[in-house]
């Protein structure tokens, strides 16, 4: 039986993005993937911060990422475009983008736009933790 290596974790050197109140967006590396953790409301005041952070991670850190949405309190429809655009950028850079933790409402909404793979929890979305 082949041993699965333990994921290595690296933290973002930049401070978390904080915009228009209780919105926080930060990233860390788990194995060869980045995890972007988002908390608070994703609205017109925070969309640019989210898009910028996703672009930064994809183009300068790791193009394979999971966006952890379990602490998102509200998400405007325009955020779906941000996630889909980030997915396209990740694919262009040889990677992928997955979402996790948003519940069933996100895949249902994404079905009507450009779909992004969604997993119920972070462990299922990260290849290092998934069973083969």
UniProtKB/TrEMBL annotation:
Sequence ranges assigned to domain STAS in this UniProt record: 35-111
Pfam families: STAS_2
InterPro entries: MlaB-like_STAS, STAS_dom, STAS_dom_sf
SUPFAM superfamilies: SpoIIaa-like
Domain of life: Bacteria
UniProt protein name: STAS domain-containing protein
Record organism: Kribbella karoonensis
């Amino acid at each position: 039986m082949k041993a699965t290596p333990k994921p290595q974790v690296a933290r973002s050197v930049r401070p978390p993005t904080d915009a228009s109140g209780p919105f926080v967006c930060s990233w860390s590396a788990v194995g060869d993937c980045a995890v972007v953790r988002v908390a608070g409301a994703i609205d017109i005041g925070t969309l640019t911060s989210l898009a910028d952070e996703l672009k930064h991670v994809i183009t300068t850190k790791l193009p394979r990422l999971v966006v952890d949405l379990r602490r998102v309190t509200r998400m405007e429809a325009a955020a779906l475009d941000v996630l889909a655009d980030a997915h396209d950028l990740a694919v262009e850079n040889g990677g992928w983008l997955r979402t996790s933790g948003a519940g069933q409402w996100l895949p249902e909404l994404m079905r009507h736009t450009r779909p992004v793979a969604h997993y119920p929890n972070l462990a299922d979305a990260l290849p290092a933790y998934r069973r083969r």
